[in-house]
């Protein structure tokens, strides 16, 4: 069957030619300018806040795209989120509204970025334009109509938020040193010249801020709308690289080892086993990066989705694309979608879209991936109600933050059982789960304490709506250790096993 990558908007699929593989398109500019008011305790000094933020930039893998809820970040702070990827892109056309004038208006972005607590790092996207056709970009091209003016804008923007004391935003508290160029260029039809845009933007960013890190626009994940093979996001390597080789790989070949520090690819799907299918894709991507001179590039996943309920997306034949999933399935899937990729070497992960539901408002896939209900669409339990995944994410960060992310040990990945060991200071922590329908017995060895605390990673309720006390929401038990080992039974919920 011939395949053709065509951008679509969740349900509305514009078919051109004969094809079964598409990409869910996400607009480049989403959040209104007025969003974002975050606060931190006044007792925490600015120096301490900056130190915490810097440490998080260097270490924490826990992100969210985006982390804002109802104009504030209290839920993000509560959950332990350390990275915020705004959906409000820093767009040239929004800052230099008159190309015949040298005036820049950063006021909306000053307000937005200035509201993000300094304990949450900002990974910002920068782009020439928000709409496909505009006076800011050439026809059917990512390139700016006036390269000189665009590059001046990029340098001014990066300089304004880099925190080096030169031409900084007034009262800048949260420095931005991670910049991504656009997003999902292989999800823009026949628009060309992305590699050139990446290169010139990279050079402008580095010119203004040599210590800044540049992320290439994330690789979109293709989706099968006909159900010929995968019915949904193409997670198997053959189908994934069929599209990747025809589109995104050409950018890497043209850049030839130059133009970014961090590679980004996006990974969605359902809660069956899609999380584990990232492994062959990741390893093949690493080979491709090495082939084109990017062997030293870090790899992030700035869009990673798991959903609850049943999205309304349908195939061209009218068939539902995604099966119904419970809150518990979503919560467990999100945990696996962090632990498993981190064990492979992926450095940062950002669930999308986003902390609260409500992406396009059409009840599609991306309106079901949030951690908090927005009060709209099917399977919704009420605006502001936290899902089980909210509490699982919080428990995950609470348990694993400050682990040695470069020393995650894979203990078992066989017979449907997955076990990983983390080192958090002097304490060892194991994360384990069972993908089988029946219970499985496992034995953990090498324990250095007399007792361990075992905690189910998903709360003991059907819905987060039933959680009234976070501290008692999870099934836990203390188990004595014999000769440095314990034997436990794994059910359908992942568990944390911590030395006491």
UniProtKB/TrEMBL annotation:
Gene Ontology molecular-function annotations: hydrolase activity, hydrolyzing O-glycosyl compounds
Transmembrane regions: 6-24
Transmembrane among keywords: yes
Claim: Signal is one of the keywords in the record: no
Domain of life where this protein originates: Bacteria
The entry's keywords: Membrane, Transmembrane, Transmembrane helix
Name of protein: Asl1-like glycosyl hydrolase catalytic domain-containing protein
Native organism: Candidatus Zambryskibacteria bacterium RIFCSPLOWO2_01_FULL_43_17
Source species taxonomy: Bacteria, Candidatus Zambryskiibacteriota
């Amino acid at each position: 069957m011939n395949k053709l990558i065509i951008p679509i908007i969740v349900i509305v699929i514009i078919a051109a030619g004969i094809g079964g593989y598409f990409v869910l398109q996400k607009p480049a500019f989403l959040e209104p300018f007025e969003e974002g008011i975050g606060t931190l305790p006044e007792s925490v000094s600015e120096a301490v806040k900056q130190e915490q933020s810097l440490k998080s930039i260097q270490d924490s893998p826990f992100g969210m795209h985006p982390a804002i809820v109802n104009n504030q970040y209290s839920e993000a702070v509560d959950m332990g989120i350390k990275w915020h990827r705004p959906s409000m892109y820093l767009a040239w056309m929004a800052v230099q509204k008159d190309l015949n004038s040298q005036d820049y208006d950063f006021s909306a972005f000053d307000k937005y970025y200035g509201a993000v607590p300094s304990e949450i790092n900002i990974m910002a996207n920068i782009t020439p334009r928000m709409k496909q056709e505009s006076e800011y970009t050439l026809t059917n091209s990512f390139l700016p109509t006036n390269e000189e003016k665009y590059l001046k804008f990029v340098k001014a923007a990066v300089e304004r938020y880099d925190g080096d004391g030169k031409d900084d935003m007034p009262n800048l508290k949260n420095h931005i040193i991670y910049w991504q160029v656009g997003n999902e260029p292989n999800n823009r039809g026949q628009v060309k010249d992305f590699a050139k845009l990446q290169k010139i933007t990279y050079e402008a960013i580095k010119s203004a801020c040599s210590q800044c890190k540049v992320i290439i626009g994330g690789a979109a994940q293709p989706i099968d709308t006909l159900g010929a093979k995968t019915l949904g996001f193409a997670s198997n390597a053959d189908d994934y690289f069929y599209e990747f080789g025809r589109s995104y790989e050409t950018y890497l070949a043209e850049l030839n080892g130059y133009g970014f520090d961090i590679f980004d690819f996006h990974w969605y799907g359902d809660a069956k086993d899609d999380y584990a299918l990232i492994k062959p894709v990741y390893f093949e991507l690493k080979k491709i990066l090495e082939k084109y001179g990017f062997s030293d590039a870090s790899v992030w996943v700035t869009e990673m989705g798991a959903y609850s309920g049943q999205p309304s997306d349908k195939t061209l034949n009218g068939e539902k694309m995604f099966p119904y999933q419970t809150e518990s399935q979503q919560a467990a899937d999100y945990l696996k979608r962090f632990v498993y990729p981190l064990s492979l070497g992926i450095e940062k992960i950002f669930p999308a879209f986003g902390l609260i539901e409500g992406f396009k408002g059409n009840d599609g896939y991306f309106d079901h991936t949030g951690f908090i209900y927005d009060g709209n669409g099917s399977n919704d339990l009420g605006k502001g109600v936290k899902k089980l995944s909210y509490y699982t994410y919080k428990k995950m960060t609470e348990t694993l933050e400050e682990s040695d992310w470069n020393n995650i040990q894979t203990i078992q990945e066989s017979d449907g059982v997955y076990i990983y060991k983390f080192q958090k200071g002097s304490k060892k922590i194991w994360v384990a789960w069972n993908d089988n329908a029946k219970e499985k017995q496992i034995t953990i060895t090498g324990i250095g304490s007399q007792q361990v605390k075992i905690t189910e990673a998903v709360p003991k309720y059907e819905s987060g709506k039933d959680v009234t006390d976070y501290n008692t929401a999870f099934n836990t038990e203390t188990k004595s250790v014999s000769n440095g080992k314990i034997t436990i039974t794994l059910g359908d919920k992942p568990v944390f096993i911590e030395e006491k």
